[in-house]
Amino acid sequence: MAPSNNMDAFRELLASSRHIVAVAGAGLSAASGIPTFRGAGGMWRKYNAISLATPEGFKANPSLSWQFYHYRRETALRAQPNNAHRALSAFSLPTIRQQISPGSTFTLITQNVDGLSQRSNDQIAAMFPEEGNTADEKLQLIEMHGKLFDVSCTAKDCRHVEYNTKSPITEALGGTELLVEHGTLDPDIPLEDLPRCSKCGSLARPGVVWFGERPFHLDDIDKLVEKADLCVVVGTSSTVYPAAGYAMEVQENGGKVAVFNLDRSEGDEEADYLFLGPCEETLVQAFGLTIPENGKISVNTPSE
Ligand code: APR
Ligand code: ZN
């Protein structure tokens, strides 16, 4: 049966679901000015993923790879969470979620490394101080592909990881983001001018998961997916595994799947619900939220 785009029916499903997971991708951050990977103007259309986002590519030319990740760091630092991030953060907050899906649990599993969901969670938690606990304790977020702002040591006997939002991350990389933006990369930044481990001084790498590497938190995610009765898929082409397989697993376990995407994506014809359009609009509608420019997010009453 073709997926439904009946928003009222989806809201009823949301209200009766008990264990909800969301799986998000680059489309979630598109409205924040972060390019996606495979869509129009996507990063993998402009740059070579194999040479920039694989352990082998980094080993062969860390300067190229670091310029690419420096560019992505600078882009993410300039970006702000959008209403799709905020809608998911609000739904993560027990006070808000209780009004939409009473008694349910929720975890956001993101493939994004830009840190915008975490920033949005922090902003929302600050808006609801009465909730007491910090964002991390309450708002369940799993960054399965790591973090752009984590810097990891490449030395086997060290592996020190540090959260670092320094801009530029090294003097030598400063300004290269403009080159990258125009699709060119400066091949000759000396190794010693690239990011180094603050503990042992060895070459450091971005704390993200590269093609061919094992994503983070897979055991936790597997437990959540096994238990889930609703999987909300947001802004992903559903082409990269294991993330692309979670929705089908939930459905095979008798759960439901709802896809929120700008364009058609892999396997969406199997979903129970499909809402095509910008997720910064469709998610807000689906959760029945009002997100004012300034001020507190609230849940619309049924008549609204
Ligand atoms: N709202 C909803 N969806 C959107 C929006 C938007 N505003 N803008 C773009 N999209 C959709 C596109 O239609 C596309 O299907 O987001 C999807 C982005 O797909 P990809 O670019 O393939 O990104 P993603 O699915 O996150 O890639 C998965 O691949 O490159 C690796 O590790 C990287 O995490 C990434 C993984
Ligand atoms: Zn080290």
Please tell me about this protein's structure:
- The chain is α/β, with parallel strands linked by helices and 304 residues long.
- It has helices spanning 7-16, 27-30, 43-46, 49-52, 55-60, 62-78, 83-92, 94-100, 116-127, 135-138, 176-181, 218-227, 246-252, 279-287, and strands spanning 19-24, 105-110, 141-143, 146-153, 161-163, 204-208, 230-234, 256-261, 273-276, 289-290, 298-299.
- The strands form three sheets. A six-stranded parallel beta sheet has the order 3-2-1-7-8-9, with helices on both faces.
- Strand 10 (289-290) and strand 11 form a beta hairpin.
- Helix 7 packs across helix 9 (116-127) and helix 7 runs parallel beside helix 14.
- The mean pLDDT is 93.
- The structure holds adenosine-5-diphosphoribose and zinc ion (ZN).
- Adenosine-5-diphosphoribose binds next to helix 2 and helix 14.
- Belongs to the sirtuin family. Class III subfamily. Belongs to the sirtuin family. Class I subfamily.
- It is found in: Mitochondrion.
